[in-house]
Write a structure and sequence with these properties.
Largest sheet: 4 strands, antiparallel
CATH architecture of the largest domain: 2-Layer Sandwich
Number of strands: 6
Number of helices: 7
Radius of gyration: 19 Å
Oligomer: single chain
Distance between the termini: 50 Å
Helix content: 40-55%
Order of helices and strands: EHEEHEEHHEHHH
Length: about 180
């Protein structure tokens, strides 16, 4: 068994009281702290489990089993979206080191492209893509890559779960357009 640290951001909750803390504890989340920041309520977990996936999914099931108030998990943190500073923090290197990797002045080049922010001051990358590249250059572990991908996948699921059929139909239309071009 390993310990996994992660955060569940909660939807439908804007503040909390002792009753909610008790309910969260009663459903088995005695390994979490209920916190709020800028009006966002979240649970910080330090969960023991056989795998990261098991830790996260068991926490989501427990939290969402609370009937009153009905809680939905909005996302998992740390998020897949990262800046240069966040990449540097996650690999315990300087921002300058990461900038050199990005620009191909260090390493083998071909750093993943940013997914957003090209016309702004700060660009955004996908941590799951960046971690795969970093793994090939011995800067992160295989487990870190797997966890990054798991977080990205779960967050996509959580984002689309209420509209999954509609989303799937839109993706099929896009795919059909791509195949006819």
């Amino acid at each position: 068994m390993n310990n996994y640290e992660f955060t569940l951001v909660l939807a439908n909750i804007h503040d909390f009281d002792e009753q909610l803390v008790d309910r969260i504890f009663e459903v088995g989340c005695d390994d979490a702290s209920l916190l709020t920041r800028n009006g966002v309520v979240y649970l910080d977990f330090d969960r023991e489990a056989a795998s990261f996936s098991e830790a996260v999914w068991s926490a989501i099931r427990q939290v969402e089993s609370i009937a009153q108030p009905k809680i939905r998990v909005d996302s998992i943190q740390p998020d897949d979206l990262v800046t240069v500073s966040e990449i540097a923090r996650r690999i315990q290197k300087s921002r300058e080191y990461v900038r050199l990797l990005i620009n191909g002045e260090r390493g083998t080049g071909n750093f993943p492209l940013p997914i957003s922010g090209m016309s702004q001051k700060s660009m955004i990358w996908s941590w799951s893509r960046v971690s795969q590249w970093l793994f090939k250059h011995d800067l992160v572990s295989e487990e870190q890559v797997a966890i990054a991908q798991e977080i990205a996948d779960i967050n996509q699921y959580l984002f689309h779960r209420d509209h999954w059929l509609e989303f799937n139909q839109r993706m099929k239309k896009i795919e059909a357009r791509l195949l006819t071009v």
